[in-house]
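User: What would this chain look like folded?
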Amino acid sequence: MRPVSLKHVMLGVSMLVIALLSTVVKPTDRMSERRVAPNFETAVPRSFNDWKEDASLKPIQISPDVQAELNKIYSQILSRTYINSAGQRVMLSIAYGGDQGRAVQVHKPEVCYPMQGFQILSIAKSAMPTASGEIPIMRLVAAQGLRVEPISYWIAVGDTVVRGALEQNLARIRYGLTGTIPDGILVRVSSISRNESETYALHDRFVTDMLQAMKAEDASRLLGRASG
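Assistant: Here's the prediction, encoded as structure tokens.
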């Protein structure tokens, strides 16, 4: 019998606490109702620095059942592919959900990709250095047949950037104790490549360029630093 890891113990404890709190505390203050909803279509430029949108590469078609599930979680999803002068491509996805309750919280890529037939080859917590500061992120590699896709992503629950299910649940507990239902943003960048280190460095440059090209308040919102 495999020993139970501390991570799984903590996750189980957090889920128990959430279940207990849900019978006592009923959050009603929706953060999404007292702050301006983001508009990613206009907030993220279609071209910036050495990057421009590549409309020739279409995103993977999502099955109807998965799309229906996403529609329950997110009120806004931006999906674009960018290319630079060296021919390197980065796929960007930003998703916003106004209600980060337990049943409709932002889905992590390690959950969504297997739903589309991908296998997760590796996953680890990391940090992305940018001109806007270091961002706590997750790095993972997903594969489907010959397609290998290194992925970098982070999630902002309210004004807190989280990594993994434990941090996501703890952030929700903290907000719940104040009677608040936080909103959430998922920012994901990925590329089709078998060179992980080179691809992750490319992601770091892309995100730095993107954040610098955005208005300060829009970039801060993506980074979980918004105050209103």
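The longest strand covers residues 147-157. If you want, I can go into more detail on any region.
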